[in-house]
Design a protein that fits this description.
- About 30% of the residues lie in helices and about 35% in strands.
- It is of the alpha+beta class.
- The protein is globular.
């Protein structure tokens, strides 16, 4: 927890405290569950994840990151979280994976909540397990609409009637943060669209390997 002195530091701490108070007044005690799914040996399995918006006890500042504070975030029974959940005074949501750096994961709390709503919605769809680069595959899928309410500089949602894509930067302080993607489809049309795109990516990857 940061030690606050006088002058500009005290002024910034006052602003930070107001941001924390605003977070607690607006989101304190908000709790919900998010369904997500994955496939094992062709079988779709569902997982429930609890999210708690209770305020934490700590505040930090960094030379380049500015001020931010912690909140509870994802709760998994009997499992400790690998990251600490944070909110910046400019509204961005982030995590710290132990590297002491604010890693943005969403542009705002409302955007994070919208992202969770989309994750829950597509939990009944089939998540793609193709053995190609997931981000390259996502870039090959046409006809999808951007969802700006759930998107920002480190996360992007795209949807059609039968395909959904979540592109995101990894939650890691290892630089550079790589882009990855989760891809879901439903129905024969969605499955076929993903299969065709997967074949294109696989062909490109084979060509690159052959020319090395």
């Amino acid at each position: 927890m940061v030690s606050i002195g006088s002058g500009a530091g005290q002024f910034n701490a006052t602003i930070q405290q107001r941001r924390r108070d605003g977070f607690e007044q607006r989101y304190g005690r908000l709790r919900y569950q998010v369904r997500s799914s994955y496939t094992v040996e062709g079988e779709r399995r569902e997982v429930l994840r609890d999210w708690h918006y209770d305020l934490g006890q700590n505040m930090w500042t960094g030379t380049s990151d500015g001020w931010y504070f912690d909140w509870f975030g994802e709760r998994v029974e009997r499992v400790s979280s690998p990251v600490r959940y944070l909110v910046h005074t400019d509204g961005r949501v982030g995590v710290d994976d132990g590297g002491g750096t604010f890693l943005e994961i969403a542009p705002s709390i409302p955007a994070l909540i919208e992202s969770h709503a989309l994750t829950d919605m597509v939990s009944t769809w089939d998540r793609t397990t193709a053995e190609v680069d997931s981000f390259a595959l996502a870039e090959q899928l046409d006809g999808l609409t951007d969802i700006p309410e759930a998107s920002g500089s480190t996360i992007r949602w795209l949807l059609s009637d039968n395909v959904a894509v979540e592109e995101f930067r990894t939650w890691s302080s290892d630089a550079p943060r790589r882009w990855r993607a989760f891809i879901w489809s439903r129905g024969e049309s969605g499955r076929r669209q993903v299969e065709v795109a997967t074949a294109r990516v696989a062909a490109t990857e084979r060509t690159k390997t052959a020319t090395r």
